[in-house]
Amino acid sequence: MVIGFTKHPVIVQSIFVSAFILAIASCKSNSQERGPRQATVQGDTIQVEKKSPLSDKIKTGPTVITQYRQPLLTAGTVKAIPTQFAEIAPPFAGRVTRSYLKLGMKCTPETPLFEISSPDFIGAQKIFFQEKTQLEQAKKALQRQKDLVAHGVGTQKDLEEAETAYEVEKKEYENAVIGIKLFKTDPDKLVLGQPLVVRAPISGEIIENKVVLGQFIKNDAASVATIAELSKIWIVGQVKEKDIRYIHALDDCEIDIAALPEKRIKGNIYHVEQMVDEETRSLKVLVEADNKDHTLKPGMYVTIHFNEVPVSAILIPSKSLLQMNDASFVFVQAGEGKYVKRKVETAGSKGDSVVIKTGLNGGETIVSEGGFYLLGNQ
Questions:
Q1: Which of 31, 53, 187, 332 shows its CA 20 to 30 Å from the CA of 96?
Q2: CA-CA-CA-CA torsion for 218, 224, 229, 234, nearest 10 degrees?
Q3: What is the Cα–Cα distance from 118 to 96, expressed in whole angstroms?
């Protein structure tokens, strides 16, 4: 027992010595792997050591204030301008006796479209001719009373009554003339019993024709033909309430057509509605565009790119912007090898650049590339 007790401390001592040697070797190895320190960190400031390999990985550049347009786009629908669009429906019920209509036909406000035989129109003709006859009789009666008074055989009372009757008949005749002219018919060329010639109310092109020769059209029937002048059109778009401040009347914009991706049409804001839709929190914007080649068709869907008035803004390379904990930031150079992390707020992008809303000033130098290497030292 005594011999075993004296050998035990020696064994323990050997174990401790071996462990100590291994610990020293391990520390030496770790020290060789780490190498010299490349940067020091103090809060949001990083100081890169001189002659550090990290310096070759970092590129810097100045911030520059430039002119920038806030991009804004929305879907739009092509519409014909209301004053250049007309749906044709006859004023009276009647049967179509003749049609001049052809799809694509050009017309003016005097172009005949079709003719109908209408009892109502014939009734209006009768009233016109009756009033015309009564006016002529009243005119003759007035002239006769004037002659009698001039020869001393007429009375002033009869003359005044004749004058009054003439003025009444004259007014009735004028109303009848207006009634005939409403149908684009010349009263001086009117023949009793002639059919009603329906004429185009505007200049344009026939884009719809439902007229069938011999058909009977009721006086409350829907339109049977449509005329549109499409050399200019409207595009109706919706703009969100938060973007209203970017929209102004007469601002220029551009229209993209899904069916023609290689073509872009220019337009101008014609009108901005004053009422916001409470359900969609948006308002309607009308854009007017030239359409001489009829590229845009009513009902077509397009994309409207609104161009805001240029404003001064700071644009930085997208590689400069870093993200951490849902925050955006950049590294600003504060001296030789010294960089400070600073939060910024963005306001969109333009190509390979990011628009900075707040956080930077013009003329400051930032890390334009390699900022993520600095993050590895934090």
A1: 187
A2: 90
A3: 9
CATH 3.40.50.150 is right for the domain spanning 83-227: no
Q: Of 291, 312, 302, 373, give the one whose Cα is nearest residue 337.
A: 373
pLDDT in tens, 25-79: 444 444 344 445 677 888 888 888 877 888 888 899 999 888 877 778 899 999 9
Residue spans per domain, the chain: 39-69+311-375, 73-82+230-307, 83-227
Encoded tokens for 300: 């077509």
Hey, what amino acid is at 27? C
Q: What is the DSSP letter of 362?
A: T
Query: Model confidence over 240-269: pLDDT tens digits?
Result: 998 888 788 888 899 999 888 888 999 999
* Tokens matching residue 74: 């929305």
CATH class of 39-69+311-375: mainly beta
How close are the terminal C-alpha atoms of the chain, in Å? 60
In the numeric block, which tokens belong to residue 240? 């969100």
Query: What tokens appear for 312 in the block?
Result: 């001064």
> Any idea what DSSP says for residue 84?
G
CA angle 44, 50, 52 (to 5 degrees): 85
The partner residues of 45 in beta bridges, in order of sequence, read 42, 340
Identify the H or E element spanning 217. strand 216-217
From 363, 376, 356, select the one nearest 333 (Cα to Cα).
Answer: 363
Topology of domain 73-82+230-307 in CATH is: Elongation Factor Tu (Ef-tu); domain 3 (2.40.30)
Beta-bridged to residue 346, according to DSSP, are 356
* CA-atom Rg of the chain in angstroms: 45
Residue 366 sits at the vertex; the CA angle it makes with 361 and 370, to the nearest 5 degrees, is 155
Decide the pairing of beta strands 301-307 and 338-343. unpaired
